[in-house]
Design a protein that fits this description.
Length: 309
């Protein structure tokens, strides 16, 4: 039976409100020394501004840090990230990993549940709808972190998604913290930096966030998946890889991550990246082509990326 985990302290309008406090816990735990130092130097404020608004992502509902070191996050963005994370996780497990276990005739850690794939396709449509139009997250129908039955397959994935979601947000928040640490906002203002120079700072913030994430993590692969989701989730917001005026192109940011973590040929990250590109291809009808047979997901990833140019 489904039960509700919401308590009085959880304010907000979307089910993601129940994970609000989990975000900061792990963030501070991870690099307490650095966070304390940044507080003491007035580079970073010791609270995060949490915006609650019935607005779509394109209505400035994406995270940023202001010149006073105050990080701003928005409930729509958090809902978007949770639903994308759940969708990607289930699509990977049920659509790639478990079928592979079955094909190779080795016992899978979990029984396959093909019905979940259909539900996730609908959930993913809801994620994408949040980019341009806000609507309420139907928590009777869709998987969500607030109202669920943990003894079902759906619930099994919800508990694990919650953990992965916190990790994704840790990456996103450490990116903002890196801006504070390197005083990027002031540098941009004082030196009147060009757009290309600003893009370099964005890459620098990514690199620092990756470093801080991997410096202290329980499971390297899970952290890498989280960083992948953090970077690639932005794909669905536009028809091309263009990062806009101030951000590097999405493939450039992903390539920086691949290089930084020295991604191994057999890493599951390649399959995640392919999954992202295929969903994006479907969304915007790019009609990417690829060979029927390929040796590795890495090979397939670069074959697809080549066609985005
Ligand atoms: Zn940034």
């Amino acid at each position: 039976m489904k039960s509700c985990v919401k308590k009085d302290i959880h304010n907000g309008i979307q089910p993601i409100r129940v994970l609000k406090h989990n975000l900061t816990h792990r963030l501070v735990d991870r690099n307490t020394e650095l966070i304390n130092e940044l507080h003491l130097n007035f580079k970073l404020q010791n609270k995060i501004k949490y915006h609650i608004a019935e607005l779509p992502l394109i209505d400035k509902q994406t995270p940023f840090i202001d010149s006073n070191g105050l990080i701003n996050i928005h409930e729509t963005y958090l809902s978007y990230i949770w639903t994308v994370t759940y969708s990607m996780f289930v699509l990977y497990e049920e659509g790639i990993s478990i079928p592979d276990y079955i094909k190779r005739n080795i016992g899978s850690p979990k029984k396959q549940n093909p019905e979940l794939l259909d539900l996730v396709k609908e959930l993913f449509d809801y994620s994408k709808s949040l980019i341009r139009a806000y609507s309420e997250w139907d928590k009777e129908y869709f998987p969500n972190p607030e109202f669920f039955d943990e003894n079902t397959d759906e619930g099994w994935y919800i508990l694990r998604t919650n953990d992965l979601y916190v990790e994704v947000l840790n990456f996103v928040l450490y990116h903002e913290i890196a801006h504070a640490e390197f005083e990027h906002i002031n540098k941009i203002k004082l030196n009147n930096l060009s757009n290309d120079e600003i893009k370099k700072l964005e890459l620098e913030a990514d690199t620092r966030a990756i470093e801080l994430m991997l410096f202290n993590c329980r499971n390297k692969n899970a952290t890498e998946i989280a960083i992948t989701i953090g970077l690639a989730s932005m794909l669905f917001t536009g028809i091309d890889l263009n990062g806009g005026k101030y951000h590097p192109d999405i493939d450039v940011r992903i390539e920086n991550f691949i290089y930084k973590v020295n991604l191994k040929e057999d890493s599951s990250i390649w399959a995640f990246l392919v999954l992202f590109l295929k969903l994006w291809d479907e969304q915007f009808s790019h009609n990417f082509k690829h060979k029927k047979e390929y040796d590795t997901f890495k090979e397939l990833y670069y074959e697809l990326i080549e066609q985005t140019k």
